[in-house]
Amino acid sequence: MSAEAITASVSQLAPVAKERDRFALLALPGLLYLGILFALPLLILLVKSLINAEGDLSLAGYAAFFSDPFNLSVFWRTLRVALLTTLLSLVLAYPTAFAMVRAGGWILTLMLVAMVLPLSVGVIVKAFSWSIVLRSNGIVNQALMGLGLVDEPVRLLFTETALVFGAANIFLPFMVLPIYAVVRQLDPNLSGAAATLGSGPLRTFLTVTLPLTLPGIIAGVAFVFSLAVSMYVIPSLIVGERHQNLAMMIARAFLFLRNEQLGSVIAVVLLAIATAVVFSSALLLRLVERRQR
Amino acid sequence: MTALERLARVVSWAVAAFVIIFLLTPIIVTLLVSFTSSSVYTLPPPQWSTKWFASLADKDGLWDALLLSLNLAFISTTIALVLGTTTALAVSRGRFPGREAIATFSVSPLMMPGLVVGVALLQFFRSLGINDAYFTLMLAHVVVTLPFVMRTLLAAFGSFDYTLLDAARTLGMPYGQAVLRVMVPALSPAFLTAGLFAFLASMDNYPVSIFLTDARNKTLPVKMLQYLEESPDPSIAAISSGLIMLALLALMLGSRTVGLNRMIQG
Q1: Residue A160 sits in which domain range?
Q2: Which of B12, B15, B19 is the mutation pick for testing A, counting most A CBs within 10 A?
Q3: CATH assignment of B59-265?
Q4: At A95, which helix (H) or strand (E)?
Q5: Looking at the structure, do residues A281 and A257 belong to the same domain, yes or no?
């Protein structure tokens, strides 16, 4: 449920009374906590990345970062991997959500367990498991050879394809669940009505079903993309240092190179991407909801 | 049903079947590997053995890391539940402007890169001269757990019918008792779900913790990644299996008390 939807449903419930305003005080502890220990440190990080060695305001750190071809290649690789991961997740999640709505009994239970169990298992455990699966003597290679598709083990670990599949494996529930939530609320009579009015199944899907499930798609895409663009543990375990991404560069800058200016600059770049995703998805959601009203 | 619709249905079932296998494979493989007698990851294991679980007993630093992670997860989740309850109450009951912004802001750490939050906190604490690793880890883990709590509680408080409280009072129940006997039971599944996911998020956190740990205070994920870099033997799989079984237990508890379908609606 989006924050907007929550507050919208809330404002209908709360009875009109002036004394209710003292409830504002209750928000203070949580707001102060996140303000001081979340927003303020990020703001300081942003300011620090804009100040050069002489203490003047300058964009030199950013200019230096983006003029280095290696940094640029890492930047584009990070975006590409995140985009591919998001696309793969969406392609797998969308049909799955429809199957889940039609499923019942033990099949539904199995599906829910398959979604929720990975959610409650840590990312290190999952990324590690995935690296076992992909090993040259791992289960994927055994299956490929068993099916006669390849004659000898293929190198899977340490490739970008492996990373995209591994990341999609780990983030998939975050794509399925929001889509499942909207598909479940679809009125099955709607597509029937469209058919009665002479709309073919493809046209019904494009004009009725797809637009109605768009809020779930936007929520899932935004969440998976923002997770994938900033993932650190998964690429460290699946591809290692060879294919660095922005998050790995930040960790290196702070933990090994001790180059905090560089680390701060990359951190702000990553922060800007995440913030852009949050705001554009919120904007898109609002647009979609307004059109459907 | 037209042929096209039938095809769409078949495709959706085929993809769903693949997704279930895709999602469960790594978990099942880890469980199998942890019971191997060999010191490499071969599947199926040449012989079954629990020796890698036994090897955990004297694994250097593992139990300290586990205790620290449990400690951080338990206390930070408790603090987050308190802060989350007051904030969710304010957003759902108040009529002041900016409640929507508060709701969005309090969930926003969920979408921010963990590593960036970790770096920002590292610099922040250092500039204030706060060096105590345990203390900074605790403060940071509340930032990690609070958005998980807020996401679930905002939805639950938002859909709670507060007129039920008025009804209970009309029937002669004192206010405190009405809250205790009407509101608390109605919202307890949400608290359980929120607490569970917040706890797991703290237990699992690596990107924020890595910047705040020191030699004596290493959380379990930090320690595990260190083991993986040093000697990736099946004892790591045994730790992972232990954590998977813990997650299964938590899930069974959750599905008994709240229901799986309700848990995922946060």
Answers
A1: 59-292
A2: B19
A3: 1.10.3720.10
A4: helix A69-102
A5: yes
Residues A18 and A141 in one domain: no
**Residues 6 or more apart in contact with residue A246 via CB below 8 angstroms:** A74, A75, A78, A229, A230, A266, A269, A270
Chain A residue with CA closest to B157: the answer is A10
Q: Rounded to an integer, what distance in angstroms lies between the CA atom of residue A227 and that of residue B193?
A: 22
| Contact present, B94 and A23 (Cβ < 8 Å) | yes
Asked, for residue A54, whether it belongs to a domain, the answer is no
Q: What is the distance between the alpha carbons of residues A10 and B157, in angstroms, rounded to a whole number?
A: 8
Radius of gyration of chain B (CA): 23
d(CA B124, CA A40) in angstroms, rounded, equals 8
B residues 197-216 lying closer than 8 A (beta carbon) to A:
197, 200, 203-204, 206-207, 210-211
Distance CA A216, CA A98 (A): 12
CATH code of the domain containing A91: 1.10.3720.10
ipTM > 0.90, yes or no: no
pTM, entire model: 0.86
Residue A14 and residue A114 in one domain: no
Q: Please tell me the distance in Å from B222's CA to the nearest CA on chain A.
A: 9
**Cis status of the peptide bond prior to A201, with omega within 30 of 0:** no
Residue of chain B minimizing CA distance to A277 = B111
Torsion sign across C-alpha atoms A139, A171, B81, A113: negative
pLDDT: which is higher, B259 or B125: B125
Q: How far is B229 from chain A (nearest CA, A)?
A: 9
If asked whether residues A74 and A118 sit together in one domain, one would say: yes
- Quick one: what percent of chain A has pLDDT higher than 70? 92
Task: Tell me the C-alpha distance between B17 and B9, whole Å.
Answer: 12
Range from A97-106, B76-85, B193-202 that averages highest in pLDDT: B76-85
- What's B205's DSSP letter? -
What element of type H or E holds B13?
helix B3-34
Identify all chain A residues contacting B18, using CB atoms and an 8 Å cutoff.
Answer: 92
Q: What is the pLDDT of residue A270?
A: 93
| Number of other residues whose CB lies within 10 A of the CB of residue B60 | 10
CA dihedral B99, B100, B106, B112 (to 10 degrees): -160
The residue assigned the tokens 């206010």 is B175
Q: What value, to the nearest 5°, has the Cα angle with vertex B159 and ends B155 and B160?
A: 115
* Beta-ladder partners of A57: A51
